[in-house]
Design brief:
The structure holds two protein chains of two kinds. Chain A is an alpha+beta fold. Chain A contains 20 helices and 28 strands. By secondary structure, chain B is of the alpha+beta class. The chains are: A alpha+beta, B alpha+beta.
Chain lengths: ~800, ~160
């Protein structure tokens, strides 16, 4: 054979100095180079085709690098390159680039002189999970990574002052060097000042941030450094990790929900070519073979006797089933205690129920991980969103001490939340432990879709509101039901995902709670409280709206399927119902949907995005539905929706323009116009990419996506049965208006647009046809049925 | 096991393989290529697309025995970081990627189309992309990048 798979062993592209700095800064904490038996690992650097590498010993120390120490975040090589360590991962959302810009800006070095190392437990700080639109806020808003960079810059100014014999106040940091302000030719570069040495400093909370007015790197549309390797097939995804002596595993999941192992006939595959071992651990079953094709064939052929399973509630009546589930776990978000009276006195009361299905993350690539478990030590290459939590739970699954587990992030296909990344990491770990060699597992499409992931929540949402004789909203009440089972494993619940449960760990138990306790503070992280409500809890009103009479009650119930966060969890479902219902109220009041919204919004940033989106869309002020609807053929309309994401972690207004084919029931979205405010913009191109992608992903989920099942098993198990929008669709135009707020704190940006799309489309369909859609997805069949029942 | 000769990106290899093995696994595991990817194993999404004798082909459902001696081109074979293909260049220019897992599918499908039909209409591009998936929904930029490359390739 003339070529061989490249192995993921160190082939550093860093300079020797940078490597030395890496070793000095990070790996010295890790019993570096402990001699014989040392594991080989490598740390990928964003934008490098190959990986920066280093050897380190199997005797790792417990705990993560201290977030208070500058060394945990920043190192400078003798050549002046900056190495930044972060606990927030590049998942395809552009976080890597934004963090590099942040470091380059605060440290006053060119962008291309920053290397970013993300989410490698031996050397990067524990920043929990990369999720919930929290990464930019976490590392941008005066703490963590940015404060480390600011501390380092001030330290370098101090070192420069000593070296140059000039007071620090007379110096300026620029282009990777400390310059004398009055004589810029007089300078000393960072490499000379500290290259290869450690800082021995704690993060200084008072280190000054550069004001936005001085930014030259942040706020610029810098191109992502990982793209050249991606588009030429050089980039190492987790799927490409290859270790010496690596074997391939496949799992055998239960055939139906609730089935458990009765017996496994290992001999049924033991003679097949390449089969190394059949692994059974309680209800976990897997096969290890020499190559992936052999593993797949063996997994298909393995004879497993399963118990019959527990059955599933009927899908057709599932929402009704949800509503009547007992017990429940109840949460009261707000209750002004006057809603029944206000509704009784209202001139008109509107009630509507909105329904949302289970949906999938449906990653483009099925989840994959590589584990190398030998003796009491484990190294896991994983696309997980949380390397430190995974380290703890892998240790539990393997029965190892967590100090002896390393988790090295490698990028997977976009996850959008809790896809199969954690569960497949357990799969690989269990199989590797059983054979004492490295094992790679990539799930099959069916294993990913039917079992591998934790689905996004379905919802039933009852909305009730009262209007006075002038068409003013006098009270708003929402009551919802949604099911949960498992979730992110966190640091101690491997049973929250399928593999952990199959291997014998319990999912988080359901805790009944009814009635709900009185709220003691206003909290709208799930957007359960409509934007138009005042949010009165205690003495203050902390919502974004003005409606004083408000009540929001949530019933969590058990789910037959695993559930977990899926891009904009609960926020999307709540917003779909509220923003659609707001449109219903506007129609009742015969008011323009934009003006009607503004009537009840008090928070300026939310008002601004609504107005900006409407303006950019040339919104024609009038009530919906539009006048003179032609009931045959294609009818066009527009709709708006908005949200203060998580109550205040990003603001979006979005206008959808649709055409509805009233003969077929097909909805064609022609254009989205969206205005977003996420505080200071780190990278306008990256932000637009997130907003555009969120808008279209939201469209796909609004129009077609739904997990389906029969009485025993999930039936949406591939792209023929789980309906997504391919690249060949008529792609709508997406206009994005960015409202920059350079002097405010940064908010999340990855989930704003997706949260409002379903409602905006539904509102546009109402405008076009007069028909209100209240159940996702808006399939042609549903739309057609609704049109046929049009009054 | 059979002795199978593959011509991949201009290099000829003869390998001892189970002839039923899907080509994708041979490319990924025996030849160590990172361009073609496993997305579904069912030929539904395009992640594994390679060009075989000029045709965009789903390597996850193509038994390796059926491509004995054929000319196979992968994403690595059409350009490099230093010398990217116009499609690769256009994807960088347009920043047409999020997670990047589907980029292979889109570029290789577009390349096979534009090689055969350099003046492919927008509609023809849409048709070629009708079974290509991007779950980050980078559709706007990807289609724009394909259009951009078409203009550049047309000179």
């Amino acid at each position: 054979m003339s070529r061989k798979a490249p192995e993921s062993t160190p082939l550093s592209e860093l300079t020797p100095e940078a490597r030395k700095a890496l070793e000095d800064q990070g790996l010295s904490r890790r019993a570096f180079l402990q001699g014989a038996g040392a594991l080989i690992v490598s740390f990928p650097v964003l934008g490098k085709a190959a990986t920066a590498g280093a050897q380190f010993g199997s005797r790792a120390t417990p705990g993560a690098p201290s977030p208070d120490e500058l060394n945990s975040w920043i190192a400078i090589a003798t050549d002046g390159r900056v190495i930044a360590y972060t606990g927030k991962a590049e998942l395809g959302q552009g976080m890597g680039t934004a963090q590099m810009q942040l470091v380059a800006e605060e440290l006053c070095v060119p962008f291309d002189r920053v290397d970013l190392i993300s989410c490698q437990t031996p050397i990067t700080p524990d920043q929990g999970v990369t999720s919930g639109s929290q990464s930019t806020p976490t590392n941008f808003n005066h703490r963590n990574l940015v404060q480390a960079a600011a501390t380092a810059r001030e330290a370098l100014l101090g070192l420069g002052a000593r070296k140059l014999g000039v007071p620090a106040a007379a110096l300026v940091a620029r282009d990777g060097a400390i310059h004398v302000k009055s004589d810029p030719a007089k300078k000393v570069d960072y490499g000379t000042l500290i290259g290869g040495k450690r800082f021995h400093l704690r993060i200084d909370p008072k280190a000054k941030r550069k004001p936005a007015s001085e930014w030259t790197i942040l706020g610029k549309p810098i191109k992502r450094p990982d793209l050249p390797a991606i588009v030429t097939g050089q980039f190492e995804f987790v799927h490409n990790v290859r270790l010496p002596g690596m074997l391939h595993g496949q799992v055998v999941r239960p055939p139906v929900i609730g089935a458990t192992v009765v017996s496994v006939d290992k001999d049924s595959v033991s003679k097949m070519p390449g089969v190394v071992k059949v692994v059974v651990r309680k209800d976990f079953v897997g096969v290890v073979a020499q190559n992936p094709w052999q593993a797949i064939q063996a997994a298909n052929k393995l004879k497993v006797h399963w118990s019959p399973g527990t059955g599933l509630p009927a899908q057709a009546s599932y929402h009704d089933y949800l509503r009547h589930q007992k017990p429940t776990h109840d949460t009261l978000k707000v209750d002004s205690r006057d809603v029944p009276q206000k509704l009784a006195a209202a001139a008109k009361v509107r009630k509507a129920t909105y329904l949302y299905p289970y949906q999938m993350h449906g990653s483009m690539g099925t989840s994959c991980a590589v584990a190398d478990v030998r003796g009491d030590h484990a190294t896991i290459y994983s696309p997980t969103q949380g390397v430190w939590p995974l380290r703890s739970t892998v240790a539990m699954v393997l029965g190892l001490s967590e100090e002896n587990v390393e988790v090295l992030f490698r990028r997977g296909a976009g996850c959008y939340g809790l896809n199969g990344a954690d569960t497949v990491s357990y799969d690989a770990a269990i199989l590797s432990q059983a054979v004492g060699r490295p094992v790679r597992v990539q799930l099959t499409r069916k294993d990913e879709m039917a079992w591998g992931e934790n689905y996004g929540y379905p919802f039933v949402l009852d909305e009730r509101a009262g209007l006075d004789t002038h068409g003013n909203i006098v009270a708003w009440e929402q009551e919802s039901w949604f099911p949960v089972h498992g979730s992110r494993p966190g640091y101690d619940r491997p049973g929250n995902v399928i593999t952990g449960m199959l291997a014998g760990f319990e999912p988080r138990p359901f805790e009944p709670r009814s009635p709900a306790p009185e709220p003691d503070r206003f909290e709208n992280g799930d957007n359960a409280v409509p934007s138009y409500c005042a949010g009165r809890v205690g003495p203050r009103a902390e919502g974004t709206g003005t409606i004083q009479s408000e009540r929001v009650l949530i019933h969590m119930v058990p789910s037959p399927f695993f559930t977990g966060p899926l891009r904009s969890p609960s926020r999307l479902q709540n917003t779909f119902a509220q923003e659609s219902f707001m449109d219903e109220l506007a129609a009742d009041a015969k008011a323009d949907p934009v003006a009607f919204r503004l009537r009840y919004l008090s928070f300026p940033r939310l008002r601004d995005v609504v107005s900006a989106a409407a303006r950019a869309a040339n919104w024609e002020a009038r009530p919906s539905p539009k006048p003179h609807i032609d009931r045959s053929g294609i009818s066009s309309g527009r709709g708006i929706a908005c949200v203060a994401y998580e109550g205040g972690n990003g603001y979006v207004g979005l206008v959808a323009e649709v055409a509805v084919d009233q003969r077929t029931g097909r909805i064609i979205v022609k254009r989205f116009v969206t205005a977003v405010d996420v505080g200071p913009i780190s990278n306008p191109n990256g932000l637009k990419n997130q907003v555009e992608g969120g808008a279209l992903q939201g469209m796909s989920r609004a129009l077609g996506e739904e997990v389906t099942w029969n009485e025993r098993e999930v039936t949406s198990i591939n792209w023929a049965t789980y309906h997504t929008l391919f690249l060949g669709i008529e792609v709508p135009k997406v206009d994005v208006v960015l409202l920059d707020r350079p002097n405010l704190n940064a908010t999340g940006a990855g989930e704003v647009s997706i949260t409002v799309v379903a409602a905006a489309i539904g509102n546009a369909v109402f405008d076009a046809t007069g028909v209100r859609l209240r159940e996702i997805p808006f399939t042609p069949e549903r739309v057609k049925a609704a049109l046929q029942h049009r009054a | 096991m059979s002795s199978i000769t593959l011509k991949v990106n201009g290099v000829t290899d003869t390998l001892e393989l189970d002839p039923t093995t899907p080509l994708l696994y041979v490319l990924s595991d025996d030849l160590g290529l990172r361009g073609p990817k496993f997305g579904c194993g069912l030929g539904e999404c395009g992640a594994c697309t390679v060009i075989i004798n000029g045709e965009a082909t789903r390597s996850c459902i193509t038994p390796v025995s059926t491509v004995h001696g054929a000319e196979i081109t992968t994403l690595e074979g059409i350009g490099t970081i230093e010398k990217p293909h116009p499609l690769q260049k256009a994807f960088i220019e347009e920043q047409a990627s999020q997670c990047g897992f589907c980029v292979n599918a889109v570029i290789m499908t577009a390349k096979a189309l534009l090689d055969k039909n350099p003046k492919a209409s927008d509609q023809e591009i849409r048709e070629a992309m009708s079974n290509v998936l991007c779950r980050c929904f980078t559709h706007v930029r990807m289609i724009r990048a394909v259009h951009r490359a078409r203009e550049e390739m047309a000179g």
